[in-house]
Design goal:
single chain; about 25% helix; three-stranded antiparallel beta sheet; 2 helices; 6 strands; alpha+beta; elongated
Protein backbone atom coordinates (compact mmCIF):
# COMPACT_ATOMS: atom_id res chain seq x y z
CA UNK A 1 0.00 0.00 0.00
CA UNK A 2 1.34 3.43 -0.84
CA UNK A 3 0.01 6.88 -0.09
CA UNK A 4 1.41 9.87 -1.93
CA UNK A 5 -0.06 13.29 -1.48
CA UNK A 6 -0.54 15.06 -4.84
CA UNK A 7 0.07 18.48 -3.28
CA UNK A 8 3.28 17.62 -1.46
CA UNK A 9 6.22 15.29 -1.95
CA UNK A 10 5.23 13.12 1.03
CA UNK A 11 5.34 9.37 0.41
CA UNK A 12 4.35 6.61 2.85
CA UNK A 13 4.69 2.91 2.08
CA UNK A 14 3.29 -0.08 3.99
CA UNK A 15 4.73 -3.54 3.28
CA UNK A 16 3.02 -6.46 4.98
CA UNK A 17 3.54 -10.20 4.91
CA UNK A 18 1.81 -12.48 7.45
CA UNK A 19 3.01 -11.04 10.79
CA UNK A 20 5.79 -8.76 9.50
CA UNK A 21 5.16 -5.17 8.49
CA UNK A 22 7.37 -2.32 7.35
CA UNK A 23 6.31 1.31 7.35
CA UNK A 24 8.59 3.54 5.28
CA UNK A 25 8.39 7.07 4.03
CA UNK A 26 9.91 10.50 3.90
CA UNK A 27 7.71 12.13 6.54
CA UNK A 28 7.89 11.07 10.20
CA UNK A 29 4.42 12.43 11.02
CA UNK A 30 2.81 10.44 8.19
CA UNK A 31 4.61 7.25 9.27
CA UNK A 32 3.56 7.72 12.90
CA UNK A 33 -0.05 8.35 11.86
CA UNK A 34 -0.11 5.15 9.81
CA UNK A 35 1.47 3.11 12.64
CA UNK A 36 -1.15 4.43 15.08
CA UNK A 37 -3.99 3.48 12.70
CA UNK A 38 -2.62 -0.03 12.25
CA UNK A 39 -2.06 -0.44 16.01
CA UNK A 40 -5.79 0.07 16.65
CA UNK A 41 -6.46 -3.19 14.77
CA UNK A 42 -3.29 -5.24 15.28
CA UNK A 43 -0.70 -5.81 17.99
CA UNK A 44 2.55 -4.14 16.91
CA UNK A 45 6.02 -3.44 18.18
CA UNK A 46 8.68 -1.16 16.74
CA UNK A 47 11.95 -2.98 16.04
CA UNK A 48 13.78 0.15 14.92
CA UNK A 49 15.66 0.33 11.64
CA UNK A 50 14.92 -2.40 9.13
CA UNK A 51 17.61 -5.09 9.12
CA UNK A 52 15.93 -8.10 7.47
CA UNK A 53 12.60 -8.55 5.65
CA UNK A 54 11.43 -11.41 3.42
CA UNK A 55 14.94 -12.69 2.77
CA UNK A 56 16.42 -9.27 2.09
CA UNK A 57 19.17 -7.95 4.36
CA UNK A 58 19.42 -4.19 4.82
CA UNK A 59 22.60 -2.39 5.88
CA UNK A 60 23.20 1.32 6.32
CA UNK A 61 26.13 3.68 5.87
CA UNK A 62 26.13 7.42 6.46
CA UNK A 63 25.07 8.15 2.87
CA UNK A 64 23.58 4.93 1.51
CA UNK A 65 21.34 1.95 2.13
CA UNK A 66 22.53 -1.45 0.91
CA UNK A 67 20.21 -4.38 0.27
CA UNK A 68 21.33 -7.94 -0.32
CA UNK A 69 20.15 -11.53 -0.39
CA UNK A 70 23.59 -12.86 0.59
CA UNK A 71 22.31 -14.83 3.58
CA UNK A 72 19.58 -16.48 1.50
CA UNK A 73 22.04 -17.46 -1.26
CA UNK A 74 24.48 -18.96 1.26
CA UNK A 75 21.65 -21.00 2.82
CA UNK A 76 20.51 -22.22 -0.60
CA UNK A 77 24.04 -23.30 -1.51
CA UNK A 78 24.40 -25.17 1.77
CA UNK A 79 21.02 -26.87 1.29
CA UNK A 80 22.12 -28.11 -2.14
CA UNK A 81 25.42 -29.46 -0.74
CA UNK A 82 27.67 -26.88 -2.35
CA UNK A 83 30.82 -26.44 -0.31
CA UNK A 84 31.00 -22.67 0.07
CA UNK A 85 32.73 -20.28 2.40
CA UNK A 86 31.38 -16.72 2.36
CA UNK A 87 33.94 -14.09 1.44
CA UNK A 88 34.17 -10.84 3.37
CA UNK A 89 34.42 -7.62 1.37
Amino acid sequence: MTNQSPRTSKLTILLACVDDTVVAGNDETEKLTLRKKIATQFEMNDSGKLRYFLGVEVAYSKKRIFISQRKRIINLLKETSWDVEPQKF
